[in-house]
C-alpha cells in the first residue's frame, strides 16, 4: 500500500541551503600583464589658453556648401618656448585632428550671419598633413561660449601682431646701432691716419737744429 504522507526527507534535502564557497586564500595571477602606455599628443610643450566643446565645419568651395569636420574640444595652446599660439581641435570619439593652425597676426574672427552661437575665420590649416587655405565655422552650445572664443582668439591675434611689430622695431634699432658703431670706428680710424701739423713742425725744427753749420771761409 502506497504511503499518502509527504516525503519530508526529500523536501528537507531540497530546501537545504547550498554550502557557501570556502575562501582558500589562493591568489590567481593574471594571464596577461597590461602595462601603462603613455600616448604622446604633441601638446606636452604647450599650455592651454582656452578650451571648449564645439562642432566644427569647413566650407567646401567645389560643392559651395558647409561640411562638418567633427565635434569635440577646440583648444588654443601656447608654446612654452616660442610663445606661439595655435588652434587645435580633435574629434571627441576618434581623437582625429580636424583643425590645426597657428593664430597669426592680422587674423580675425567674425560672428556667422544669422547665428550668434557660431563664428567664422580664415586660416592656413595643417590638419590633413598639408597646408590648405580654409574657411572655418565653429558652433558652440551657447552665445556666451561663442563670444568668449571670439574675444580670446582676437586678443591673441592682436598680441601676436604687437609682438611682431616690437621685434621688427628692435631689429631695426639694432641695425642702426651697428651702423652707428661702424661709422664711429671709421671716424676714429680716419682721425688716427690724419697727419698732425704740430708734430710735423716740431720734427722739422729738430732736424734744423741738428744740422751742422757750414765752415766759414
From TrEMBL:
Keyword Cell membrane attached: no
Any coiled-coil regions, as ranges: none
Bias-annotated ranges (Basic and acidic residues): 1-13, 159-168, 180-211
Biased composition regions of type Acidic residues, renumbered to the chain: 14-24
Name this protein carries in UniProt: Ran-binding protein 1 homolog a-like
GO BP of this protein: mRNA transport; nucleocytoplasmic transport; protein transport
Highest taxon of the lineage: Eukaryota
Location of the protein in the cell: Nucleus, Nuclear pore complex
CDD domains with a match to the protein in the record: RanBD_RanBP1
One Pfam family recorded for the sequence: Ran_BP1
Keyword annotations of the record: mRNA transport, Nuclear pore complex, Nucleus, Protein transport, Translocation, Transport
Species whose genome carries this gene: Rhizophora mucronata
Domain RanBD1 positions: 27-162
Keyword Disulfide bond belongs to the record: no
A GO molecular-function annotation: GTPase activator activity
InterPro entries, alphabetized: PH-like_dom_sf, Ran_bind_dom, RanBP1-like, RanBP1_RanBD
Primary localization: nucleus
GO CC, alphabetical: cytoplasm; nuclear pore
Region entry Disordered, spans: 1-30, 159-217
Amino acid at each position: 500500500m502506497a504511503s499518502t504522507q509527504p516525503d519530508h526527507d526529500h523536501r528537507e534535502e531540497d530546501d537545504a541551503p547550498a554550502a557557501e564557497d570556502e575562501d582558500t586564500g589562493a591568489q590567481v595571477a593574471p594571464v596577461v600583464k597590461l602595462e601603462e602606455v603613455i600616448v604622446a599628443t604633441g601638446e606636452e610643450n604647450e599650455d592651454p589658453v582656452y578650451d571648449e566643446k564645439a562642432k566644427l565645419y569647413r566650407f567646401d568651395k567645389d560643392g559651395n556648401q558647409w561640411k562638418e569636420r567633427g565635434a569635440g574640444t577646440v583648444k588654443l595652446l601656447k608654446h612654452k618656448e616660442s610663445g606661439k599660439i595655435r588652434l587645435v581641435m580633435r574629434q571627441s570619439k576618434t581623437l582625429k585632428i580636424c583643425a590645426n593652425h597657428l593664430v597669426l597676426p592680422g587674423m580675425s574672427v567674425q560672428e556667422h550671419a544669422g547665428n550668434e552661437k557660431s563664428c567664422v575665420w580664415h586660416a592656413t590649416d595643417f590638419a590633413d598633413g598639408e597646408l590648405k587655405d580654409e574657411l572655418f565655422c565653429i558652433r558652440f552650445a551657447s552665445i556666451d561660449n561663442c563670444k568668449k572664443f571670439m574675444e580670446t582668439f582676437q586678443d591673441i591675434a592682436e598680441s601676436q601682431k604687437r609682438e611682431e611689430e616690437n621685434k621688427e622695431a628692435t631689429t631695426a634699432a639694432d641695425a642702426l646701432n651697428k651702423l652707428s658703431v661702424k661709422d664711429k670706428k671709421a671716424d676714429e680710424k680716419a682721425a688716427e691716419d690724419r697727419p698732425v701739423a704740430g708734430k710735423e713742425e716740431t720734427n722739422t725744427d729738430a732736424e734744423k737744429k741738428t744740422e751742422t753749420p757750414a765752415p766759414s771761409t
